[in-house]
Amino acid sequence: MKLTIIILAFIGLTVLYFIGMYNALVRLRNQVKNAWAQIDVQLKRRHDLIPNLIETVKGYMKHERETFEKITEYRAKAMAAGTVGEKAAAEGMLGQALGQLNVAVENYPDLKANQNFLALQEELTSTENKISYSRQAYNDSVLALNNKIQMFPSNIIANMFGFKQEEFFEIDIPQEREVPKVAF
Fold this sequence. Notes:
Elements: H1 2-58, H2 65-80, H3 84-105, H4 109-113, H5 115-150, H6 154-160, H7 174-177
C-alpha cells in the first residue's frame, strides 16, 4: 500500500513536471510571437513615415532621384517580405538607403532648416531606436525559446508537441561590422 502511494505520487509529480515544461514552452513561443508583433508595429510605422519624408525632401533634392527610387523599392520589398530572414534582409537594405539619404541631406542647408523635414527626421530616428529595441527584445525571446527547445529534458516535450526553433532577426550590413575610422 505504501509503495503504491509512493509510485502514484512519483507519477503525479512527473506528470505535473511535464505539464509545467509544456506550459513554459507555450509561454516562450507566445513571447516570441508578441515580440515579433512589436517589431512589426515599428516597421509599419517606419514604412508609413518614409513616403512623407520623401515628399518633403523631393522639392529640395532634385538631383537625388536614384536615392528616392532605391528607398521606394526597398520599402516595397520590406513590406512584402514574409519570413524573418527576408524581412531582416529587406530592412537592412532599406536602412542603408535611408542612411544614403541622410548623407545627401548634408548638401542641402535649406532642407536641414525645414521644420517639416526636421520633424519627420526626428520621428524616423525615434522609430529606428524603437525598432532596435524591439529587435533586441525579439531576439532575447527567441534565444529563451530555442534554449528551452534544445535543452534536456524540455527537448523531449518540445519534440513530442512539435515546437520549432525560431529564427533570429539579424540585419547583415557589412558597413555595420566595420570599425569606424576616427581622424582628428
